[in-house]
């Protein structure tokens, strides 16, 4: 899973051209990953102000507006990609245009299978 | 009359032969593959109703050739190709040649097809997908299901693989002698990966994964029939049989992992063990030694011990030493450390592990922590063992393994 982190400041500082360039880079990377059959899914997430955080405590549900973690950085989008190994995943993360301005995290997905150890 | 299960079995047997015959005559691997899939589908629908035709193989070749011709005709841009294909051989000519003419090539076709699907220009994931579809006769949906990816993703992977083969100039012939060993190595590796995908103990997706082990065993059996004198083919088949023999004992009723030492050995498949052991013993005595044979020999020692305590660990240590010499893989040393600890005590096993701590390939791998935790527990160092179990649990990406490791830690 490639997780794209962003913050409002760095997004605001981008010119219209830079934003266009990012969209184009994402579109071509998605197309390439889809073509190779490695792309499982990808999406950009709506602005963090649209977040609702849900918590249940002692059976009582509370909802609050805004993200769980109080940080400048927020999850802006993700790619779920089938990779041969970590190096390949890192190479794709490095090709995300966001890596130039903010950061992309690479994290494996848990699976339902295991060795008998 | 044949039931749907027998028909499916028959179709799986015939699929690579039909595809092989078509590709040999017409070229166009990608188009032939689509045409054969359509013919298989037609057979799966018609045969249960109308009965299996006398020459099932000829029927499939005829239908697939017709579909191929339709495809070639329907695209005007491909007219030139149609002409050249029609000049090569018409569908009737192909079938009229009769089973006798085609027969000597049947087995070769299957093997050539397997070599083609494991083409070095493809990634392992694509080699697996294409092998399962073209040689195994599985549908795209079945393959996608088994690999837990959306069908569209798998369809793209397969069509991409077909295009790569086309671009690589896919001549349908056996690779030259000097290349053959290397290509056979790739074929065996792909079959090994297919097996592992199905074997890796699974809670949620048990059924479709078992289908993959069955398919891998069926395919490697087919290769073994074609190359009975190759020791590594026999070794791989023996390894699969001996490993798969433990399937029923490997997971508990709740889907949890059962370690080898705690497995109920009465659940092991004796028939598979007898066959696998005989096969590896025979291969070791008359063919060139290789890593699959050695791993099969190790599996045979485990499989033939009546109780876990009866395991011949010193013998396993020797085999791991030999295996380490022929394959540069840190996982071998990791397993060797366990065997050494069982044969001569945890201290010696732990010493062997030290050499792996600076090996970037495994230094951050959860298996290193898990093995060390196990040996530390054997040595009575509870605190250190607990820390390693918990670190291993955090590092694994397998849910059942995580549950198992956390449970080991909490027992200490």
What does this structure look like?
The complex is a heterodimer of chains A (117) and B (412). Chain A is an alpha+beta fold and 117 residues long. Chain A has four helices and seven strands. Chain A has helices at 8-12, 16-35, 86-95, 98-101; strands at residues 2-7, 39-44, 52-57, 60-65, 73-81, 103-106, 113-114. A four-stranded antiparallel β-sheet of chain A has the order 2-5-1-6. Chain A has a two-stranded antiparallel ribbon with strand order 3-4. The longest helix of chain A has 20 residues, at 16-35. Chain B is elongated and about 75 Å long. Chain B is built from 21 helices and one strand. In chain B, helix 7 (124-135) crosses helix 9 (151-167) and helix 15 runs antiparallel to helix 16. Chain B is mainly α and 412 residues long. The longest helix of chain B is centred in the first third of the chain and has 23 residues, at 4-26. At the A-B interface, strand 2 and strand 7 of A face helix 7, helix 9, strand 1 and helix 21 of B. Strand 7 (113-114) of chain A pairs antiparallel with strand 1 of chain B.
Greatest interface (CB-CB under 8 A), with counts per chain: A-B, 20 and 39 residues
Shape of chain A: flat
- Following the backbone from N to C, one meets helices and strands of chain B in this order, namely HHHHHHHHHHEHHHHHHHHHHH
What class would the helix/strand composition of chain B place it in?
A: mainly alpha
Q: How many DSSP E strands of chain A? A: 7
Mean pLDDT of chain A comes to: 91
Poorly predicted regions of chain B: 95-104
Biggest pleated-sheet summary of chain A: 4 strands, antiparallel
Number of helices of chain A: 4
Radius of gyration of chain B: 24 Å
Share of helix of chain A, binned: 25-40%
Count of alpha/pi helices of chain B:
21
Low-confidence stretches of chain A: none
Largest beta sheet of chain A: what is the strand line-up? 2-5-1-6
Which strand-content bin applies to the residues of chain B?
under 5%
């Amino acid at each position: 899973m490639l997780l794209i982190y962003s913050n409002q400041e760095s997004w605001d500082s981008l010119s219209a051209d830079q934003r266009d360039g990012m969209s184009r880079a994402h579109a071509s990377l998605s197309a390439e990953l889809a073509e190779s059959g490695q792309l499982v899914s990808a999406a950009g997430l709506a602005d963090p102000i649209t977040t609702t955080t849900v918590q249940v405590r002692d059976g009582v549900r509370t909802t609050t507006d805004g993200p769980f973690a109080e940080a400048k950085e927020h999850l802006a989008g993700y790619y779920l990609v089938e990779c041969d190994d970590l190096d390949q995943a890192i190479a794709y993360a490095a090709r995300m245009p966001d890596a130039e301005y903010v950061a992309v995290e690479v994290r494996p997905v848990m699976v339902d299978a295991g060795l008998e150890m | 009359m044949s039931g749907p299960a027998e028909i499916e079995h028959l179709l799986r047997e015939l699929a690579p032969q039909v595809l092989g015959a078509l590709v040999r005559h017409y070229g166009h691997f990608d188009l032939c593959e689509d045409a054969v899939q359509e013919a298989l589908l037609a057979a799966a629908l018609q045969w249960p109703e109308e009965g299996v035709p006398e020459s099932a193989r000829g029927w499939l070749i005829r239908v697939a050739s017709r579909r191929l011709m339709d495809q070639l005709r329907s695209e005007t841009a491909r007219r030139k190709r149609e002409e050249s294909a029609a000049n090569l051989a018409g569908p009737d000519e192909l079938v009229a040649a009769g089973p006798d003419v085609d027969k000597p090539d049947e087995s070769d076709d299957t093997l050539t097809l397997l070599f083609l699907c494991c083409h070095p220009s493809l990634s392992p994931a694509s080699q697996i997908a294409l092998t399962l579809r073209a040689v195994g006769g599985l549908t795209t949906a079945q393959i996608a299901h088994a690999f837990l990816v959306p069908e569209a993703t798998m369809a793209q992977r397969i069509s991409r693989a077909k295009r790569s083969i086309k671009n690589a100039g896919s001549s349908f012939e056996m690779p030259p002698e000097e290349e053959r060993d290397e290509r056979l190595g790739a074929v065996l590796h792909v079959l090994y990966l297919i097996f592992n995908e199905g074997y890796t103990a699974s809670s949620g997706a048990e059924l479709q994964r078992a289908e993959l082990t069955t398919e891998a065993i069926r395919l490697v059996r087919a290769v073994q029939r074609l190359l009975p004198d190759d020791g590594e083919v026999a070794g791989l088949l023996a390894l699969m049989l001996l490993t798969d023999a433990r399937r029923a004992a490997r997971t508990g009723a709740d889907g949890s992992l059962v370690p080898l030492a705690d497995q109920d050995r009465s659940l092991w498949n004796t028939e598979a063990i007898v066959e696998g052991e005989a096969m590896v013993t025979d291969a070791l005595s008359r063919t060139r030694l290789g890593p699959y044979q050695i791993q099969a020999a190790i599996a045979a020692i485990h499989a033939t011990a009546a109780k876990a305590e009866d395991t011949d660990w010193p013998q396993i240590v020797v085999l791991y030493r030999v295996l380490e010499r022929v394959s540069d893989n840190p996982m071998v040393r990791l397993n060797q450390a366990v065997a050494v600890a069982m044969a001569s005590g945890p201290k010696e096993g732990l010493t062997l592990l030290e050499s792996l701590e600076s090996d970037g390939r495994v230094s951050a791998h959860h298996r290193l922590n898990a093995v060390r935790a196990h040996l530390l527990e054997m040595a009575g160092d509870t605190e250190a063992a607990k820390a390693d179990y918990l670190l291993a649990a955090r590092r694994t990406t397998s849910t059942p393994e995580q549950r198992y490791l956390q449970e080991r830690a909490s027992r200490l």
